[in-house]
Specification:
Blueprint (H helix, E strand, L loop, with lengths): L1 H13 L5 E5 L8 H16 L3 E5 L3 H9 L3 H4 L4 E2 L5 H6 L4 H6 L6 H5 L8
């Protein structure tokens, strides 16, 4: 969990305006009580900013532990995406339209037609 927490701190330092984070969680094999609390706190903090904390390919054992430790509700059941799921549909709305408006990459299908706030391109 220290590695995850360090990564979250690094995101805040390098891009303080980033409100949404998707963790590719397939490499997370264990979460203790302190780690569960840290993830719950981070999810609440990012949600207050208008974003969220999301997990892609999280192991069932990790999700079960978060549920058992009463932290899953803080993250939200919808914050977990299994392999090959379309996570971007859920996460796209939390991205910053003012940043997307000037972005030239448009890497997601959703980027082609509208901004995260629903405004048409």
């Amino acid at each position: 969990m220290d590695h995850v927490q360090s990564g979250l701190i690094q995101i805040d330092e390098s891009n303080p305006d980033q409100k949404t984070v998707l963790i590719v969680a397939s490499g997370i094999n264990f979460v203790d009580v302190a780690g569960a609390e840290m993830l719950a706190q981070e999810a609440r903090r990012r949600r207050k900013l208008g974003g969220g904390l999301y997990f892609y390919r999280c192991k069932d054992s990790i999700k079960k532990f978060l549920r058992k430790s009463d932290k899953l509700d803080d993250i939200g059941e919808g914050g977990f995406f299994p392999a090959q799921s379309n996570w971007i549909k859920a996460v796209y709305a939390t991205l910053a339209p003012e940043i997307c408006r000037t972005c030239k990459a448009r890497i997601f299908d959703e980027c082609q037609t509208h901004l995260p706030d629903g405004e048409k391109r």
